[in-house]
Design a protein that fits this description.
With 293 residues, the chain is an all-alpha fold. The chain is built from 11 helices and 3 strands.
Amino acid sequence: MGSGLVHGSSWETGNGDCEVNHSLSRTINDTLCQCNGFWATGWRIWEDRQPASSERHKGFHRAKDDTTGGAVTGLDATPVPDRPLGRPRATTHDELEAVGMDLFRRMGYENVSVQQISDAAGVSRRTFFRYFPTKSDLPWGDFGLEVDRLRVTLSAVPDHVPLMAALRRAVVEFNRVPAEAVDQHRARLGLILTEPELIARSLLKFQLWREVIAEFAARRLGMPTSAFLPELVGEIALSAAVAAYRQWIPAPTSDLPTLIDTAFAAILDLDGLEHGTAAVLAQRLARPDGDPA
């Protein structure tokens, strides 16, 4: 759900004195881009060689091979066109995701089927399932890639940057999206946190995210990832993010990175909330630009 992470010239802890090695950041970015391209190509080649999953296509059989534009037919042998004639195929993960999110917005998540998404995108069901294991995975986008980027970002944090300062910066950047993608990101999170099927799916997705945070905390604390304190840090970071999401979704003029940063600021000074800190943070959130000054 994030925007991609290794940015990099500095890890700010409040004093701006923690500089990340530029060369390391560039190397990580270059390596990540190369690996992503290799992995995506290899994955598609592998999937092209696999039979269609009976779970994904339950109740259907294939009359023709998908690569020849064949149709999927039902048990009653009634042909179902792969796509409307004359409509160009949606050939990328992002394009298929955009089509699905538009249908969810206009018709409601529960009222949209995988077949409807496939038809609107001009692709077959088989192609849909190459990109998304289930309909409930579509609103999450390429979440696995974003989690991998978060892991790479945290692995590049210098040892002298305090644990919570590093997490604060990384989680804020994870949730920063381009201005043109803000509306879709808000719609995406709105679905994830309100639709019963997606709430159930979020248990698995958020677990992947928490594990990355716990791994980082475990390295810093010299403990196993499954130990209580690393697990606690993961839960705290996730709670901060989700609380920010819930405030941001119904408030179009609010800023998600500012909300998340403010959540971490509150966590770092819980005792101070009843002694003036709460008022200061509330004033910060009231500013359109989120400027703490």
